């Protein structure tokens, strides 16, 4: 079996982490770089990633995550926070980065800037928030796959109160919203979930070739 597929089969949503095992800094750096390389619409990456390691801060977050043990037992908790709204600055800053990185004159990118602005800026505030949240989920998929490839256990979590997370982490004042969180670390030997057979739809019920 292909090693990538083997690693995806090895991965599961870890329910109980080994509280004494830490993800090495070098592996965390690789994981975060892999996540930063995720695809996003127009390449805009309208989100930020918070790496929460501080134990006391995580104790404050735990009640807002329904008391789930992963919040305090995992090596780190990653919070993927989407922009709640945006204006021209999101596009302008991105294209300035393109100009600098690729050595392209800013004026040569004006047509692309106008195109993106014509598609994104007319969106309503709720549509903007929905769009940016969707982008975080693209990053989430890449994060989970990269973690599996590094043999780092993970648990993506939507079971939390985003309003409380935003308040504790100071996200609202930054125009951000906690969209999804991921606990990462190493599975505990006591986690029975690791022994469950992975259940997925049969390919013929999931995939249609046209």
From TrEMBL:
Signal peptide: none
Family annotation (Pfam families): Nitroreductase
Gene3D superfamilies noted in UniProt: NADH Oxidase (3.40.109.10)
Nitroreductase domain ranges (all copies): 9-186
MF term (GO), any: oxidoreductase activity
Record's keyword terms, sorted: Flavoprotein, FMN, NADP, Oxidoreductase
Cofactor: FMN
Family: Belongs to the nitroreductase family.
Protein name: NAD(P)H-dependent oxidoreductase
Organism: Arenibacter aquaticus
